[in-house]
From TrEMBL:
One of its GO terms (molecular function) is hydrolase activity. Residues 61-166 form the Xaa-Pro dipeptidyl-peptidase-like domain. It comes from Aureobasidium melanogenum. It comes from the Eukaryota. This is Alpha/beta-hydrolase. NCBIfam families: CocE_NonD.
């Protein structure tokens, strides 16, 4: 019988808001990033962006998925949405390998950043390349299309895992 493998283990503490970039669960928080501001030390924004954090979408089996929505702050027109779907997390202006709202919102698009099942504060277990991801994706697209600001046109974009989820 081979010798047991020794594994290095270090216990870590609970996340603390304000440490290491952790923002906490901002359910229902709405804010406007002003033109010229630099959220997350990014390039200065060309226009105001309305941000809604952790909007809850309940899918067909009752699981709650959370999305961040970025929209042009100065538009009363219904606009199309582009959805970025992954398990990478969604804190901040950009999602890893997703679209940059600072570019798309001034062009009249909403960017929807989804924490898929089991990611971030969304319910359930992470599922990759399975029917669960497909069903959840369908339900989220349908929910976004019905929102009062959306014109019903929804696209998906991203590379790597974000492309696989499409």
């Amino acid at each position: 019988m081979p010798a047991p493998v020794q594994v290095a283990f270090k216990r870590i503490g609970e996340p603390v808001v304000g440490q290491n970039g952790y923002l906490g669960f901002l359910k229902g928080k709405t804010e406007v990033h002003k033109a010229g501001s630099r959220p997350g030390n990014a390039k200065a924004l060309d226009s105001d962006i309305l941000v809604e954090h952790n909007v809850e979408i309940v899918v067909r089996d009752g699981a709650r998925l959370y999305v961040d929505m970025f929209r042009p702050a100065d538009s009363d027109e219904k606009i199309p949405a582009i959805l970025s779907w992954s398990f990478y997390g969604k804190n901040g202006l950009e999602k890893f390998e997703g679209l940059d709202p600072a570019h798309w919102c001034p062009h009249g698009y909403a960017i929807i950043s989804v924490d898929s099942r089991g990611a971030g504060s969304s319910d359930g277990q992470i599922s990759v390349m399975g029917t669960q991801d497909a069903e959840d994706g369908y339900d989220v697209v349908e929910a976004i299309a019905k929102m009062d600001w959306c014109n019903g046109s929804i696209g998906m974009a991203g590379n790597s895992a974000l492309a696989i989820s499409q």
